[in-house]
């Protein structure tokens, strides 16, 4: 057992006078993740929620919390240049995600979305969602 549990159980263990401000205040649910970079994100979200309850930050909607060396503060690049990312039109949502990636990785990333993978494609984006396998062409392409 690593702690945690269903919210109903956690609420039952909490003193009754503290239950409304903790469980009824529409706080975002923060998932505790054990991988280092993701654990830091969980800690940042917890720190932000605590700071927003203090008088100094109570009027703020969010806080830009930054940890030195975190992934969000690093420029994302690809080791191999140039990168041509193919987003198949048979994969719903893949093109939109590929375009977002191109926006945050401006150097060296080109998005292709032709019906067939171009010879220049170095990578294929497989975007998984409820509609991923709705087009039979995608299974053949993967």
Task: Give a brief outline of the structure.
The protein is mainly α and 142 residues long.
Can you give keywords for this protein?
142 residues; mainly alpha; 3-stranded parallel β-sheet; 3 strands; 7% strand; elongated
Please characterize this protein's 3D structure:
The protein is mainly alpha-helical. Helix content is 32%, strand content 7%. It has helices at 7-13, 19-23, 36-51, 94-104, 136-141; strands at 83-86, 109-112, 123-124. A three-stranded parallel sheet has the order 2-1-3, covered by helices on one side. It starts with 6 loop residues before the first helix and ends with a helix. The mean pLDDT is 88.
- Rg over CA atoms, rounded to whole Å, is 22 Å
End-to-end Cα distance, whole Å, is: 39 Å
Largest sheet: 3 strands, parallel
Write the element-wise H/E pattern from the N-terminal end onward. HHHEHEEH
Structural class: mainly alpha
Largest sheet: spatial strand order: 2-1-3
pLDDT under 50 segments (min length 5)? none
Number of helices: 5
Q: Report strand %.
A: 5-15%
Percent helix: 25-40%
Summarize model confidence as the mean pLDDT.
88
Query: How many E strands?
Result: 3
Shape label: elongated
């Amino acid at each position: 057992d690593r702690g945690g549990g269903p919210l109903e159980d956690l609420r039952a263990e909490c003193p009754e006078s503290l239950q409304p401000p903790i469980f009824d205040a529409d706080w975002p649910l923060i998932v505790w993740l054990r991988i280092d970079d993701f654990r830091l994100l969980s800690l940042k979200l917890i720190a932000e929620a605590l700071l927003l309850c203090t008088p100094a930050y109570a009027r703020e909607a969010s806080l830009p919390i930054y940890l030195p060396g975190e992934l969000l503060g690093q420029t994302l690049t690809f080791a191999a240049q140039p990168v041509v990312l193919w987003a198949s039109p048979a994969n719903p949502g893949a093109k939109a995600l590929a375009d977002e990636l191109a926006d945050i990785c401006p150097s060296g990333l080109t998005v292709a979305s032709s019906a067939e993978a171009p010879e220049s494609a170095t990578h294929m984006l497989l975007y998984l969602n409820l509609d991923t396998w709705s087009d039979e062409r995608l299974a053949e392409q993967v």
